[in-house]
Write a structure and sequence with these properties.
The protein has 221 residues and is mainly α. 66% of the residues lie in helices and 0% in strands. It has two domains: 116 residues, no CATH class; 91 residues, no CATH class. The chain is globular and about 45 Å long.
Length: 221
Amino acid sequence: MFLLSAIIILSYLIGSIPTSLIITKLVKGVDIRNFGSGNAGGTNVSRVLGWKYGVLVILLDAIKGASAVILVARLHYGTMPFQNATPFDDFTLVQIIAGVSAVIGHIWTIFAGFRGGKGIATALGMLLFIITIDMLVAIAVFMLVVILTKYISLGSILGAVSVPLVLIVRENLFNVNIPGYNTLLPFTIGISFLIIYTHRANLSRIFAGKENQVKLFKKKK
């Protein structure tokens, strides 16, 4: 039990590293949460510092989720402190626990007054190593929605929601035998609801026509 607790705490601390705050502090000497949408995420960083720094923050946030799954989870050895009722082997279950802990750390970071980002990039980094095909489809959905609507927040929400839907379609319509499907489905549904919850203010602004749209291409003069 001690070892699993240590993995959860370490993953949470890695997820809590406030990359957006660190980058904006180093580059501009400001707190990103006082500018733009007030969110400590890559999208808001791109608004304040430009898309290059925004992409950098997104990559670093994704690495946090991936690090929890790839590195921290490897600290586990021996048997689980509870009965593993999932179809996953013990290590994969530990990876999921570590990844979720990192996402929680990103959203409620202990290093910045529990006011972090929305968890999209960190969850992306985690899930890419657990359900790769479904996440690639989700990334495609995200990009398509952003291109059509220019709303990154809407793309994030629909991309997250597409993950359990793709799982359902692959398993039930295309008869793909997805290992751990009965555990992955409620897990990804839970992640989707969490993403929707963290984007609730964005949804309100979209419905009110006040959400910021991203400029994908600069018009030639």
